[in-house]
Amino acid sequence: MADWGPVLIAVLLFVLLSPGLLFQIPAKGRVVEFGNMQTSGASILVHAIIYFGVITILLIAIGVHIYTG
To answer: What CA–CA distance (Å, rounded) separates 8 from 25?
Structure first.
């Protein structure tokens, strides 16, 4: 049996937390901008920290598993 939980969670979070796709923290001149499709070094760092925190909680603390086969 293959455990697809970590793979699906990682891909979903990577797409949703791409800076500038849905939102960007911090934005130029504001705290949050939505759908501007522009990034900065600071926003990449903030989104990477958020990604690491959420994926750690979901995969290690909660233990999301999706088995196939």
So the answer is: 24
Q: How many CB atoms lie within 10 A of CB 37?
A: 10
Single pTM value for the model = 0.83
How many CB atoms sit inside 10 A of residue 32's CB? 9
Q: What is the pLDDT of residues 21-35, one digit of tens each?
A: 888 989 888 899 998
Helix ranges (H only) for the chain are 5-16, 41-56
CA distance 32 to 52: 20
Amino acid at 55: I
Confidence of residue 50 (pLDDT cuts 50, 70, 90): very high
| Sequence spans of domains, the chain | 2-68
